[in-house]
Amino acid sequence: MKKIEKITPQSEDFAKWYTDVIKNGDLMAYGATKGSIIFKPLSFGIWDNIRLHLDKEFKKVGVQNVYLPLLIPESLLTKEKEHLEGFNPELATVTEVGGKKLAEKYFIRPTSETLFGDFFKNEINSYNDLPLIYNQWVNVLRWEKTTNPFLRTREFLWQEGHTMHSCPKEAQKLTTKMLNIYKKFVSDYLAIPVIDGQKTEHEKFSGADFTFTIEAMMKDGKALQAGTSHYLGQNFTIPFDISFKNKENKLENAYGTSWGVSTRLLGALIMTHGDDRGIIIPPKIAPIQIDIIEMFASKEPKVHELALNIKSVLEKANFNVQIDNSDKGAGFKAANSEIHGTPLRIEIGPRDLLENRTLFVRRDTLEKFYVPISEVKTAAKNILKDIQSNLLASAQQRLVNNIVNVNNFNDFKTAIENGKWVLAAFDGDATDEVKIKELTGASTRCIPFILPITPKNNVCFYTGKKTNRYVLFAKAY
Amino acid sequence: MKKIEKITPQSEDFAKWYTDVIKNGDLMAYGATKGSIIFKPLSFGIWDNIRLHLDKEFKKVGVQNVYLPLLIPESLLTKEKEHLEGFNPELATVTEVGGKKLAEKYFIRPTSETLFGDFFKNEINSYNDLPLIYNQWVNVLRWEKTTNPFLRTREFLWQEGHTMHSCPKEAQKLTTKMLNIYKKFVSDYLAIPVIDGQKTEHEKFSGADFTFTIEAMMKDGKALQAGTSHYLGQNFTIPFDISFKNKENKLENAYGTSWGVSTRLLGALIMTHGDDRGIIIPPKIAPIQIDIIEMFASKEPKVHELALNIKSVLEKANFNVQIDNSDKGAGFKAANSEIHGTPLRIEIGPRDLLENRTLFVRRDTLEKFYVPISEVKTAAKNILKDIQSNLLASAQQRLVNNIVNVNNFNDFKTAIENGKWVLAAFDGDATDEVKIKELTGASTRCIPFILPITPKNNVCFYTGKKTNRYVLFAKAY
C-alpha cells in the first residue's frame, strides 16, 4: 500500500495540485509511451459510468452504437482538405508490418469523419434510409506536443457520434439536441455547470460549417471545452459522394453532423470539485459512493460485523460501498478516503457500537455528524443527494461570479490576468483572435446562446466598432 | 432499404452461406482497410450485451477494469523473447508522425502482457499489494494474412484480463476460475456448448506456461477456439522485474495470468445457430428479442394501435421489442425478421384484431401458433426461455454426435475428412502435430478436462505407443 504524499495547496500551485491529487488519488499512472496514461480502476470506473449514463440518453433519441476500424488509409483521409490540414501534424502513421514496408500508409484515427463517410456512402440510397444516427465509444490518437493527464493526452477515449440527414434543418436540429444532452448530463451527473454557445469561425472544427460547444470553468479560472457538436453540412458528403434520391427522385448530397465528449471530462471533474485534501467525485458518477471506515477494529470484532451489516443495507438500496478494515490508523483511513474523493464516509468504532450510532463525514463540506444505526440508509440517501446538488451549486456560483464585462482592451487584459472570464462585444476576425491570444493568453470560448451576464455596451473592446456579437474569452486548457 | 438477396444453403457451401447471412443480416460491412470490418448496430449490440453480462461475472470475482495505451514501444515488446517471436510478423508499426520519422518505433498492441508488465512493476511492492486482478475491453491488431469477418480480422475487439499473484497456486486457481466463467457464460448466454481443456505445448500461447481453452463446434464441423486462459508463471515478471517482498521479507517475482474472449464469439454464435434463412440470435443476448410485424396495416389503423400496446406491455416486462410497420409485403417482413435472427416474431393483422389474437413464430423451429392478446406477455416469456434452451440442446446434441474415437491414422483421416472431431490417444510432439496438420488439416484443439466420449483404447493413433493422454483434434477456424 502506498503512502499518502503531501498535496500542494491549490492556491500555491494549481498545476502541481492537479498532478498531486491524480497521483495520490490513484487515478492514473504514466504509460510507457510518452504523453500516454494508464487509467487505473478509479478513473476508468468514472469513465465507465459516464458511458453508461450518457449511452442511455443517446438511446432515448435513437442513437445506435457501431464500431469502425482504427486505421484510416491515406487515400481516405486526404479526401477532405480542410479536415486533413487540421489533423495532419498529429497523425500517428503505420508504415510497416513485421518489419516490411506497406504499399499504403495508414493513420491511426484522430477522429472518424472520413471512415464514417466511406461507410455511409454504401448505406444510403434513398431518403427512406435517412436519418442514420450512429455513435462509437473508442480510442483515438492525436500526437500532441504538450500533454497533461486526462486533459490532453496522445491517446484518449471518447464517443464520437456521426449522423446523416436528408435536409439541413433536421441535421442542425440534431446538432443542438446532442449539445443539450451533453449540457444536461454534465450538469446532472458531473455537477459541472457550463456555458453553451457557438465557436467562432477561427475556433470551429476543421471540416464543420459550425461548431457548438459547452465550456466549463475550472477552479483556477481557466476554461475547459467539455463537449462539442458540429454541423458538417455537405462538407464530407460531397467529397465522399454520399447521396440519396430525395422525394422528387433527384440525387442530393446528404447533410451530416458529428459530436463528442472525451476522457477530458475526468480532468474537468477533478478541477471543478477537488480541494486541498484531494479529488471529490459527485455521488451520481462515483464508482464508490460510500466508504465505511472501521476505527480501531482490531480491538472489537463486532465493529466489523456492524460494518458488514451496514454495507449490506446500503447495497440493497443500490449504493456502491467499500469497507476499510485494514490495520492502518484512524487518521490514515480518513485521509485515504478523502484523497480518493469518495463522497460520503461512515466511521464506526467500538464506542459507536455502544451508542448505536455511526459518524457520517461529508467529503464536500467535511461536516461530521452522528447518525443512529437504524437511520443510516435514509440519511445516506439524503446526504448523497445533497452533496450532488451542493457541488453543482458551488460550481455554478463560482462560474457566475467570475465572468466580467469589459469595454476596452486594458480592462480585458487585467481581467484575464486575474483569472476571470470576459464576456464582451467583439467584432474581430481570426487575425484579431490570434493577436489577442498572443497578447493575453485568452482565446474565444464561444458566442453564448444565452448571455450569462448582462453586458453594459455594444462597442467592440478590441476594434472599437459597434456590434451586437457578444463573445466569451478565457484562458483555456 | 436493402433487398434481401438469396442465401446459399449451408449444405451447398458453408463459407458462402456465412458471408451471405452476415451481409443480409446487416451484421457487418467491409472497412476501408483490407481485412477490417465495420460492426453495424446489430453485431455491435450483441457484443455490447456480451460485455455487459460478462463484465458482471468478472466483477463478482473481484476483477477491476482499467485502460492501458494502444501503443507498445519497441523496447518494451522485445523484453520477452518467446512472446515477441510469436507476434512479430503481425505487428502493425507506427514509425512516423505528421510525416516525420520517430526516434523509436511503436507497435499497435496485439495483446498487452508487456504493457501490463511495465505497469505492474510500479504497482507492486509487497505481498499486501497482491493479488491485482485487472481487465480491459479494447481493440487489438494482428495483421493476419487471411481474414474472415468476425472470425479472423486484422483488428478485433476483446477483453484481456491480466493478473498478478503472490504464489503459483493462487494464479493457477484463477486461470481455471476465468475459464469456467467463460464456459458458463458461453453456454448460458450464447447457447454454445464447449469442450474445455488444456492446449498442447505446440498450441499454447507464446509466453505462457500453460493455456486452457474452450472449443466450440460450428455447424460445418470445424472447431472454433472461443476463449483462452493462460497461466504465465514468472515468464513476464522476471524480464519485467516485477517482484514483491513476501511474508519472509524476501524479494520474489510475482506469478501472472492472462485471459480473453473476443468478437470471434460473434462468428461462433452465427455458425452455431444459423440456418438457411439467416442468423439466429439466442434471446438472452439478442439486442432485439421480439419483432412485432404489422400485416396489411395500411388497411386498418387499429393494427398499429394494437402493435404499440403489445410493445408497451412487453417492454414493461423488460423485453427489447421492435415494430415493423413499413409498407412492405407480409412475406418480406417475415423474411426480414428471420434473416436478422430475431428469436421471436409476433404477427398481427386485421383478422387477428377481430379474433383477439396474435400469431407467434419461433425463429429456431419456425413453429407458428396463435396466442390470445391477453396472454402475450406470459407466452413470450415462456417461448423465449424455451428458444434459449432449445438452441443450446440442439448444439449440444450435435457436438456429442460428432466426436469420434479412432485408433489408427487411416480412420483418423477419414473422420476428419467427414467433418468429425476426433478424440484419440496421442503421445506425439510438436513435430507430429505439424505433420498431422499438413496431412489432414486437423490440429490439436485441447487435452479435455473431462472426456466427452469414452475412448476404446490407450494406443496412440499416430505413433502406436501406449499413452493415457487423450487429445481432441479437428479442423479449426
TrEMBL record, chains A, B:
Main localisation: cytoplasm
PROSITE patterns in alphabetical order: AA_TRNA_LIGASE_II (PS50862)
Swiss-Prot/TrEMBL catalytic activity: tRNA(Pro) + L-proline + ATP = L-prolyl-tRNA(Pro) + AMP + diphosphate
The enzyme's E.C. designation: 6.1.1.15
Annotated coiled-coil segments of the chain: none
SUPFAM superfamilies: C-terminal domain of ProRS, Class II aaRS ABD-related, Class II aaRS and biotin synthetases
Compartments it resides in: Cytoplasm
Pfam family, one: ProRS-C_1
Residue ranges constituting the Aminoacyl-transfer RNA synthetases class-II family profile domain according to the UniProt record: 46-282
Organism domain of life: Bacteria
SMART domains: ProRS-C_1 (SM00946)
Keywords: Aminoacyl-tRNA synthetase, ATP-binding, Cytoplasm, Ligase, Nucleotide-binding, Protein biosynthesis
GO molecular function: proline-tRNA ligase activity
Enzyme class: ligase
InterPro entries named among the record's database cross-references: aa-tRNA-synt_IIb (IPR002314), aa-tRNA-synth_II (IPR006195), aa-tRNA-synth_II/BPL/LPL (IPR045864), Anticodon-bd (IPR004154), Anticodon-bd_dom_sf (IPR036621), Pro-tRNA-ligase_IIa (IPR002316), Pro-tRNA-ligase_IIa_arc-type (IPR004499), Pro-tRNA_ligase_II_C (IPR016061)
Assembly with partners or alone: Homodimer.
Notes concerning its domains: Consists of three domains: the N-terminal catalytic domain, the anticodon-binding domain and the C-terminal extension.
Family: Belongs to the class-II aminoacyl-tRNA synthetase family. ProS type 3 subfamily.
Function field: Catalyzes the attachment of proline to tRNA(Pro) in a two-step reaction: proline is first activated by ATP to form Pro-AMP and then transferred to the acceptor end of tRNA(Pro).
Record-given protein name: Proline--tRNA ligase
Species: Metamycoplasma equirhinis
Gene assigned in the entry: proS
